[in-house]
């Protein structure tokens, strides 16, 4: 499990603790901070953020498979922004550092509280997050570039479909949950597959705005 997946797992856990069926940006931020924390302290640049001060019981861990929940549109927007940041820096996968950087301009309850308490600005937050090295946030092996040949198959995994469209996998899963993208389950298994041809159906031409030539 990479750090972005760990952050998402903690975010789902945070939503469930609130008895909510929807993951909000605040849940995602808490999940991201938990993913990089040690003993309840998430160190980002000059700030040592105490999860307990944010109302998080950091010793309570998710157990077993996390239940399926929906992501709010705002949370999906965070994932998409993180994916764009990863692409802009040439990273093959989205990490927790990209998720954290995506909160730089956010004014959610938790982020707003942190900005007010520590005098955080968008620029100072991005600069601090940029100092988080990959070795500090992940014990995974460096990601390999996707094999282009595997995308020639008719049926793709959610991760492969997301890669082809240039969006985050959580956005693709949201499309599947809302039936925007048809998906198929392999007989007798939990694995989900998406038909390549169905990806074209969700694309629509961009019409020129009035007055534009």
Question: Which key phrases capture this entry?
Answer:
9% strand; 10 helices; two-stranded parallel sheet; 45% helix; 213 residues; mainly alpha; Multidrug-efflux Transporter Regulator, Chain: A, Domain 2; Double Clp-N motif; three-stranded antiparallel sheet
Topology order in helix (H) and strand (E) letters: HEHEEEHHHHHEHHEEH
Number of helices: 10
Which bin fits the share of residues in helices? 40-55%
Work out the strand percent.
Answer: 5-15%
CATH classification, class level of the largest domain: Mainly Alpha
What topology, given as strand order, has the largest sheet? 5-7-6
Topology record:
Elements lengths: L2 H15 L4 E2 L1 H12 L4 E4 L2 E4 L19 E2 L1 H16 L7 H6 L7 H10 L3 H9 L3 H4 L17 E2 L1 H8 L3 H9 L6 E2 L6 E4 H6 L12
Parallel strand pairs: 1-4
Antiparallel strand pairs: 2-3, 5-7, 6-7
Helix pairs in contact: 1-2, 8-9
Give structural notes:
- The protein has helices at residues 3-17, 25-36, 73-88, 96-101, 109-118, 122-130, 134-137, 158-165, 169-177, 196-201, and strands spanning 22-23, 41-44, 47-50, 70-71, 155-156, 184-185, 192-195.
- The chain is mostly helical and 213 residues long.
- The chain has 2 domains: 3-137, Double Clp-N motif, CATH 1.10.1780.10; 148-201, Orthogonal Bundle (Multidrug-efflux Transporter Regulator, Chain: A, Domain 2), CATH 1.10.1660.
- It has a 3-stranded antiparallel beta sheet.
- Helix 1 (3-17) crosses helix 2 (25-36).
- Mean pLDDT is 81; it is low at 134-148.
